[in-house]
Design brief:
Layout: H1 3-17, E1 47-51, E2 66-76, E3 81-86, E4 99-103, E5 112-118, E6 136-139, E7 144-153, E8 164-165, E9 170-173
Length: 174
């Protein structure tokens, strides 16, 4: 083999063995030393809540009860106790005991339709916002927990046609 070709082959082999940029990791055989370090994460009690809309649909005359339901999803750290409350809504005069939807058309915003929110499908327990009285308790699992909200529009005098609405605030206490 010719000396130039052999020198080129050796140079190429050296370049490949050192990672093309000429750097080569050193190897040491004199001994070892070790150290340890801690890795930590502190989790504190925490919860989040997501609420889905409740739509009673379209109706003509309020001569029969309208029942619908929706859900709120609570995600709390595992073993964290919580309560979920629902307020009376943002319509003037609306309370937890007597919730109201208000008309949305100009000139009709003081017209209301009564409705209620319950903790149970039998509509036996009104859902409120006072812990230990009318909120829904639970314990976090670390994953989302779905809780059903049962709504009802009772039979009542039917006001003029309009879209009636309110905004309910769902709160998780933990």
């Amino acid at each position: 083999m010719n000396k130039k070709l052999l020198a080129s082959a050796l140079a190429a082999a050296f370049a490949l063995s050192t990672g093309l940029n000429g750097a080569q990791a050193a190897t040491y055989l004199n001994g070892t030393g070790t150290a340890t370090f801690n890795v930590t994460l502190t989790l504190t009690a925490n919860c989040t809540i997501v609420a889905n809309p409740l739509n009673f649909g379209s109706n003509g005359v309020l001569t029969s009860v309208i029942d619908r339901s929706t859900t709120v999803a609570v995600t709390c750290t595992n073993t964290t106790p919580y309560n979920v409350g629902l307020d009376g809504g943002n319509v003037t005069g609306s309370t937890v005991a007597a919730r109201l939807l208000a008309g949305t058309t100009t000139g009709n915003t003081t017209t209301t339709v009564a409705f209620q929110l319950y903790q149970d499908a039998a509509h036996g327990t009104v859902w409120g916002n006072t812990q230990g009285t009318n909120t829904v308790p639970g314990t976090g699992s670390g994953s989302a927990q779905s809780i059903t909200v049962y709504g009802e529009v009772a039979v009542q005098a039917t006001p003029k046609p309009d879209v009636y609405q309110t905004t309910i605030t769902a709160t998780v206490y933990f």
